Amino acid sequence: MQSGADENSVELCGTAADEPRFTHRSAGWDCYSFAVEVARLSGRIDRLNVTAPSYLLLGAGIRAGARLRLRGAIRSRNVREDERCRLILTVRAQSAELVAGNADPENLVRLSGSVCRAPVFRETPLGRRVCDVMLAVRRRYGRADFVPVILWGENAVRAGALVPGERICCTGRFQSREYVKRLPEGEETRVAFEVSAAGLCPAD
Fold this sequence. Notes:
This protein is mainly beta. It has two domains: 8-107, CATH 2.40.50.140; 110-202, CATH 2.40.50.140. The protein has two helices and twelve strands, in the order ββββαββββββαββ. Strands 1, 2, 3, 4, 5, 6, 7, 8, 9, 10, 11 and 12 form a twelve-stranded mixed β-sheet that branches. Strand 2 (21-26) and strand 3 (29-39) form a beta hairpin.
């Protein structure tokens, strides 16, 4: 973890779902975006957005269909849609390498940060306890990424008692989830991104 920053690390092993496409320049480098598909134990597939500088892509030789391992950090940005802001999460790759086609899937996230609004605790119709937490994860130089975290069971109960400003650490996976947005012209299926946390503890 860098001085002045919260912990924010992601490790993925999955399959590049499409060809990298140029999106912008940052720190003098061309940056490209593509999706990586990572299988869960249940068989469901998380399709995650990745951004990488050109030197990583050239070094690893990443193409659609390639099996690869990535390490990086979650980055957030707001996109204005329907006169509202929508939070978009991506993985900013810091290292990338090709791996054997039969390499096991990996999806591990470690975060620390501050709770930035009151958690939302609820129970599903089947009685499962769930809590949604928005975590502000500091970068260096005063910026922060805002990461939705979902917790289950006893972790959900503990998270429901958190207050804004409280600092926590969590571990889990980065996941994609489809939902239906009701619009004046009808329903539209969209994708949300969040961290599903398996562990929770106070931050130092």
